[in-house]
Amino acid sequence: MLGTRACGEAISTPSPPIRRRERPPLSAEQRQENRVLAYTQQGTLHVIRHIKIFRVLKGVYRHRRRRFALRVQLIAALCNLTHACRSWLLQEVQYKNPAQLLKTRK
Fold first, then answer.
1. What is the spatial distance between Cα 101 and Cα 60, in angstroms, rounded to a whole number?
2. Which long-range contacts (C-beta less than 8 Å, at least 24 apart) are formed by 64-73?
3. Residues sharing a CB contact under 8 Å with residue 14, sequence separation 6 or more, in sequence order
4. Cβ-contact 18, 33 below 8 angstroms
5. Distance from C-alpha of 14 to C-alpha of 42, rounded to nearest angstrom
6. How far is Cα of residue 43 from the mean position of the Cα atoms in its chain?
């Protein structure tokens, strides 16, 4: 929620997936909507998992309320940085021979 507000995008409540019925079965369009929703939800849950690795945000926050937003932003920045470094390293390994990559790092 904080990320979408910061970007200036409109916040809408997520719609639940369309339930499967026996008669009539789901149309192809409804199935596609469910797939898109599941794909988006999976990414969101992965991000929440990365943030909850930090103990401060795992449970009930018991510190000063004023500093909560600052801590969330700092932890989100760390998560983004680790994600960016991981993707950069994967690109380096993909384009180079791993043996050459280890020689250039020393």
1. 43
2. 69/2, 72/2, 73/2
3. 37, 41
4. yes
5. 13
6. 5
* pLDDT tens-digit readout, 67-84: 888 888 988 888 888 888
Distance CA 99, CA 103 (A): 6
**pTM summary value:** 0.55
Burial of 9 (0-12, 13-18, 19+ CB in 10 A): exposed
**In the block, which residue shows the tokens 């199935």?**
31
| Least confident interval from 23-27, 42-46, 86-90 | 86-90
How far apart CA 61 and CA 81 sit, in angstroms, is 23
